[in-house]
What we know:
With 470 residues, the protein is an all-alpha fold. It is built from 15 helices and no strands. The protein is globular and about 65 Å long. The protein has a domain at 18-175. The N and C termini lie close together (7 Å).
Amino acid sequence: MSASPATPAASPFLSATAAADREADRRLVRLVYTFIACAAAWLVCGTAVGEYIALKFVWPDLGIDPWLSVGRLRPVHTNIVLFGWASLAGIGLALLVVPRTSRTTLRHPRFAWTALALLNAAIIVGTVCLIAGLNNGAQEYREWLWPVMGTFVAGIALLLVALYRTVAMRGTEPIYISNWYILGAFIWVATLLTVAYLPWYQHGLSETVIQGYFMHNAVGMWFTPLSLGMLYYALPKLLNKPIYSYALGVLAFWTQLLFYTMIGGHHFVFSPTPWSLQTVAIVFSIGMIVPVFAGTANFLLTIRGDWSSITDSYALPFIFVGVIMYFVASMQGTLEAFRSLNEVWHFTDFTVAHSHMAMYGFVSFLLWGGIYGLLPPLTGRRPSLRLVGAHFWFALIGLAIYASSLMVGGTLRGLSWMHGAPFIDSVVLMAPYWTGRMIGGTLMFLSHLLFAYNVWRMRPVSGRSTERAA
C-alpha cells in the first residue's frame, strides 16, 4: 500500500467527474480536519480537569465548592477524554481511512457532519450535567444521563450508515482489514451503549454485572478496534510497504471478538457476583494473549528492517510507542485478572495507572501518530518538527513518571490493606506517589497544548488538492 501521487492541479479541461471527485475530496479534508480539531480541543479541556484533580491530590483544599470536588470532576475528566478526545479523533481518522482503502468517496457526508454536531452536543450537555451533580449514578464511564448518551448513540448510528455504505460501494473486491476493525468498532459500540443503558434488567447485582461488561468493552470493543483499524492503514502507508500478514490481522480480529466481550467480570473478583462468571472472565482474559500477540507481532514484523525510519519520522515514534504499550497494557490487564494479583491491586491507584497505560500509552499515542502521519498530506500544512518532538517526549516521560508512581504506590497500598493497617496509613503512604502523579500529569498536559497548536498549524490550505488513492 504505497503512497500515491497528489491529484494534478486544477485545470479547466478536467472532466465533470474529475471535478466532482476533487470537490468531494476537499469536503472530506474539511470534515476530517474538523473532527480532529474538535478532538484536540476536548483533549485540552478534559486533561485540564485531570491536571486540576492531580493538584488536589497534593493540595486537597484547592477549591472546596461542590462542583470542584473530585467526585464531580473525575467523571468530567474521563468522559471528555473518552468521548470527546479519543472518540472524535478516532472517528476523524476512520472517515479518512475507509474511503481511501475502499477506493471511493465517502457516502452520506452530511450524516457525518450531523453526527459531529450530535456528538459535540452530547459532550457539552453531559459535562454540564456532571458538574451540576446530575448523573447516572456510580457507573464508571456511563455517568451521562440516558438522553445525553442517546444523542451520542444517534451520532454513532449516522456514522455507521455512512461508513457502511462507503465500504458497500467500494471500488475493490476485497474488504481491507482496516475496514473490518473500523466497521466492527461502530457496530460493537452501538450495541454496547444500548445494552448499558436499557433499564429492564439492571436491578441490584445485575447492574454491577452490566457495569463490568460496559466499562471494559468501551475500551476493548470501541477504542481498540478503532485505533488498530487506523493503524493497519497508516503503518504500511508511512513505511511504504504492505502489512506483514493479512492472516494475522484476521486472526487478531476474530479472537478479539471471541475473548474480549467476556472479560469485564474480572473487575468484580471477590464480589457477590457469581463465582463462575468471575472464573469465565479470568479464563477469557488469558485468551486475550492470542489477539494481542498476533496484532503486536504483525505490526513489529511490518516495521522490521525499517527501524531507521522511526528516527526519520515524526509520526512513527508515536506509533511505535503505541504498539509497545498495546502489548504491555494488555498483558498487564491479563495479570490483573488473576485472583492473587487482583487482591493486591484492585481498588488501588495501580488500576488508575493501568487505565492510563491503555487509553493514553496505547490509544492516544496511536491516534497522535495517525494524525501527524496522515493529516499533513491531506491538508497541505505540516506541524512544527521541534514541537512534535517536544510533544512526544513530554507525553512519554510524563506517562512514565505518572504510571510508575501509581503502580509502585498502588502496590504498597494494596499490601498495607492486606496486612490490616489503618486506612489513613495508606493515604499517608500515597502522598509522595501522588506528587509523582502530579509531575507526570503536568508534563502530559503540556504535551497536549503543543499538540493542539500543531493541529492548528495543520489546518487545510484553501483550495488544496489532496491525495485520493489508498
